[in-house]
Amino acid sequence: MLTGTLNLKLLLTQYSQGVAVTWGLVLLENIMLALIPLLIGFSIDNLLEGVADQLILLAIIMVLLTGVAVLRRVYDTRMYGAMKVALGLELDQRNLYLNVSTRSARLDMSRELVSFLEDDVPELITGVTQIIISLAILSSFGLGLAMNAAGMTLTMLLLYTFFHRSFLRLNQALNNQTERQVALLTRGFHTSLNRHLSLLLRWEVKLSDREAILYGLIFLLVTGFIVSNLWLATAIPDISAGTIFTIITYSWEFVQAALVLPMTLQGLTRLHEITERINSKKVV
């Protein structure tokens, strides 16, 4: 039984052991995953010298990675599934006084809390792990490479702050309209349903447009970062093919990891609105 405000903190407290296990496996999986490009670079140089030691190590790490990844996904499905059931039952018990339309919508929304822990947080762990390892490896080849990466990340986060309020407002409008859906279907008026679906589309389009602008600006930053690091890498004296591959690969890995940050922040913005809604006795 869940007691207290229904939010991420409550779920993490109630299922702390299960979450610790799955996030630990995620961390282990991503440490090994983040090392793959480095090992490939070493293997290239090693094989060009007629030696296969690094290639054997690469194969061992990839087999271990496969085992951890499979185990984590099998465990995740069962643990987070139980969490969704418990949260859904508790929420419905607390909202018995509400109409069916609102209860149905809030039940669907509540599952997003668990989905965030199951899908978004592992992606965040992946991103943070890759960022730390990428920065360490890039700085070992040249401080300028790492400084470019750090500068891009800070600029990306600043960009998101300008979009935060609009994302919150648009998610609120979309969820308000979603809560009315079952009630409108019950009435059976075609005109009401047509207006409802048109309003849903309106808010979804506005959200999509904001996301497109944000990620368009972010990818312009990414373009400058990749071009700059490629230029710096080729300027390093006596650099080998394997080292160039490693630098460019980790630059791209860093980009992919850094993109998780604004996506996670956007998810938290939506969850903030949902958390307030499912704990509210107010009907829209």
TrEMBL record:
Its domain of life reads: Bacteria
Q: Which UniProt keywords apply?
A: Membrane, Transmembrane, Transmembrane helix
Q: How does it sit in the membrane?
A: Multi-pass membrane protein
Compartment annotation:
Cell membrane
Residues annotated as domain ABC transmembrane type-1: 113-270
Q: Which GO terms describe its cellular component?
A: plasma membrane
Gene3D superfamilies (alphabetical): ABC transporter type 1, transmembrane domain
Per the UniProt record, which residue ranges are transmembrane? 20-43, 55-75, 131-160, 212-233, 239-261
For molecular function, the Gene Ontology terms on record are: ABC-type transporter activity; ATP binding
Q: Which InterPro entries match?
A: ABC1_TM_dom, ABC1_TM_sf
Q: What is this protein called?
A: ABC transporter permease protein
Q: What is the lineage of its organism?
A: Bacteria, Pseudomonadati, Pseudomonadota, Gammaproteobacteria, Oceanospirillales
